[in-house]
Amino acid sequence: MDEFARAVEATLFASAVPLTVQEIGEHSGDGDVDEALTALQALYEGHGIELVERGGRWHFQTAPDLAHLLRRTREEPRRLSRAATETLAIIAYHEPVSRAEIEAIRGVQISKGTLDVLMDSGWVRPAGRREAPGRPLLYATTGEFLSHFGLQSRRDLPGIDDLKAAGLLDPLDEAMNGSLGQLQLESGDKED
Hints:
This protein is an alpha+beta fold and 192 residues long. Helices cover 52% and strands 13% of the residues.
């Protein structure tokens, strides 16, 4: 391994947070960061730790098959309310999105606490303001969201067919949507 790859390795080990390629280069000096990352990924493949990229940021993590060895305390799963879960899904699939747009999609108002919980978890962040009257604040997901859910990017979010196959869509909603579609077809037939 060359000196630059060693510097990249040391930078990643010393960092408390995942780093972008640009941030790695700022700390490591002159060299091809992408080439060094590729070499390090190959070097650590099959080891107890691995070099991974999530949402454009690089970090070392325990190999998934060994993570259970390091858990000394019982991890409590983070439970989100239904409102928070729906809000997070809307933000993930429609970002950047304003509070009013979230409410329009959900069909109900959301409490400020719902967005606070998502921001406190590190999964949602303010993403600027829309160039519209009132300049509403926009929300988007974070790199921590991608990392927590094991996604490389938002393109890895499951599609409607994936959700149906996993049984995650409410059958009542599906039945209602099917009935509405059938009613529209029948009313369209009568008008012709």
